[in-house]
Design a protein that fits this description.
With about 270 residues, this protein is mainly beta. It has 1 helix and 20 strands. The longest helix is centred in the middle third of the chain and has 4 residues.
């Protein structure tokens, strides 16, 4: 049996006064993470030297390559009729199956009967920060127009791509009208387009996309950045297919999230 606690949940599960902060150190910046708290394990011994693993989920994502130090100390114990023994056989920071950090402490207790109620911990982790991103290509037929000179020569982005979620707001009064808005979480821009045959193609990148939720992507053509579309086409583009992405610490990036830009025919 493993005792599992969670310092990152709201409210924390089995952890009192959990704290966490991070700083960047070094000329090639690395992330230094600090964790501390009091882990309530309530481990009872009935005379033997009983051992158990306690896992404290820290809930912070990082790369698989990190260094760490851990210190544990007695926080609370109780004993009825005998001397009590408390030991920490090992304490390590490791990566959980979901890619976040967790603290694993091997505790031992001996008493008749005695209970180890809690222990305090302090952990420091030095790591490269994990980078979340979405990458893809936007393409369109040259018949719809060419990029403006500000894009091709001046280096201006042609597209802005937002990641977010649609949020519905109920009507303020019965019988009224509700509304739907796009709640943006992260955004990125396109690079310099390239012409391949009769098709333009341009790469884009969105950095810092939060882990967990499923995000819908919304590309938009920036004003004045396309010489087009020709007469007979609608002025506003369409982007297909609809794309949604969910990132996790174990899968922190999505590649090949592509769109094709088209223009419908305008009114005759």
């Amino acid at each position: 049996m493993v005792i599992e606690l969670d310092a990152s949940s709201i409210p924390p599960k089995g952890v009192t006064t959990p704290s966490y902060f991070s700083v960047f150190v070094g000329y090639t910046p690395r992330q230094l993470l600090f964790f501390s708290g009091i882990a309530g394990c309530d481990w009872t011994s009935n005379g033997d030297l009983d051992r158990e693993d306690v896992i404290v989920h820290l809930g912070v994502a990082t790369t698989p390559y990190f260094q760490s130090t851990v210190t544990t100390a007695l926080a609370s114990l109780s004993d009825e009729n005998s001397d009590f023994v408390f030991a920490t056989d090992s304490a390590v920071v490791e990566t959980a199956p979901d890619g976040t950090l967790q603290l694993r402490v091997r505790i031992a207790a001996q008493g008749d009967s005695g209970t180890l109620n809690a222990f305090s911990y302090s952990a420091q982790v030095l790591s490269d920060p994990i980078s979340s991103k979405i990458l893809g290509i936007i393409s369109w037929s040259r018949e719809f127009g060419d990029p403006a000179q500000a894009v091709l020569v001046g280096g201006q982005p042609m597209f802005r791509i937002a990641a977010g979620q649609f949020v519905s707001t109920p009507p303020p009064t019965p019988g009224g009208f509700g509304s739907t808005s796009f709640d943006e979480s992260a955004a990125g821009y396109s690079s310099t387009p390239a012409l391949s045959g009769d098709k333009w193609m341009v790469a884009y990148e969105i950095d810092g996309v939060p882990f967990g939720p499923t995000w819908q992507l919304r590309p938009s053509l920036l004003p004045g950045m396309l010489v087009g579309p020709p007469a007979g086409y609608a002025p506003d583009p369409q982007f297909d297919p609809a794309q949604s992405v969910a990132l996790t610490p174990s899968v922190p990036s999505a590649v090949g999230v592509d769109f094709v830009m088209t223009f419908g025919h305008g009114p005759k």
